[in-house]
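Students often ask why inverse folding is considered easier than folding. One informal answer: many sequences map to the same fold, so there is more than one right answer. In these notes we will look at a single instance of the problem. The structure comes first.
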């Protein structure tokens, strides 16, 4: 068994173990949280979403296995191409994407009825692109025009395109990029200036959106901040029900498939799947 693993599964064993464990947990979580959804849309077939998740996992694990066999140097030349694809996809999603919960984060694949979140593709493309340029420009890593600006402009474009529909993802991706630049020995002076510019742009975006009421998600962000600061949760039904679920579940929970509060949660299978 060990020889088979060494032959076909390269890399860190701990990472492989984490992948398998998270996959198993995701199957249990999806099965446990989609009961009410199955009765609403699938005629009570509770296995439907379990099988769907299992098929996605199988396809994902197959992709992981095939991709990890390819030498990492092969991916470097693909980074600019992936970024050139990701930016138009983000723009199309922002303008014409499927709107769910006041956020246009998804594109529907014609004929398949499957939606994809283009920001996930953009994350991969941007990280590859930043890593590539940091590697290629090490001899000029302190140069503003040769290195810093060519790296920072794509970061700013991608994050700004994600920001209107998914604030947290945009900030997280910007932070990851900042850390990569710091580890890549980019001048700290440039990074501090970039951080200040980022905060200024986000503040300007939020201010304009609040004044014009042009971004649907702005009202959601505003309500969350107001509810949190005032300590009121009367309007946040989803959060209330999730707290009840966690409180009644205790330390070990009620077990897979035994959740009761999932029937009260509007979206127990997405953001509130933990509850």
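Output (designed amino acids):
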């Amino acid at each position: 068994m060990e020889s088979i693993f060494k032959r076909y599964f390269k890399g860190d064993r701990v990472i492989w173990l984490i992948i398998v464990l998270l996959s198993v947990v995701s199957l249990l979580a999806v099965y446990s949280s989609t009961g009410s959804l199955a009765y609403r849309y699938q005629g009570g077939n509770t296995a439907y979403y379990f099988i769907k998740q299992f098929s996605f996992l199988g396809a994902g694990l197959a992709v992981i296995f095939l991709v990890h066999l390819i030498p990492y140097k092969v991916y470097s030349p693909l980074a600019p191409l992936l970024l050139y694809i990701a930016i138009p996809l983000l723009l199309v999603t922002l303008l014409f994407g499927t709107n769910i919960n006041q956020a246009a984060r998804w594109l529907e694949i014609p004929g398949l009825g499957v939606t994809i979140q283009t920001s996930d593709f953009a994350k991969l493309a941007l990280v590859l692109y930043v890593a590539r340029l940091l590697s290629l420009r090490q001899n000029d890593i302190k140069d503003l025009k040769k290195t810093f600006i060519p790296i920072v402009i794509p970061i700013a474009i991608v994050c700004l395109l994600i920001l209107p529909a998914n604030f947290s993802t945009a900030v997280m991706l910007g932070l990851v990029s900042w850390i990569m630049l710091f580890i890549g020995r980019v001048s700290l002076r440039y990074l501090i200036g970039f951080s200040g510019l980022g905060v200024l742009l986000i503040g300007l975006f939020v201010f304009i959106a609040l004044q014009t009421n042009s971004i649907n998600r702005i009202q959601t962000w505003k309500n969350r901040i107001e509810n949190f600061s005032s300590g009121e949760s009367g309007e946040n039904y989803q959060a209330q029900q999730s707290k009840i679920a966690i409180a009644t579940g205790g330390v070990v929970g009620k077990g897979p498939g035994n959740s009761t509060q999932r029937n009260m949660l509007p979206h127990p299978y997405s953001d509130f799947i933990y509850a």
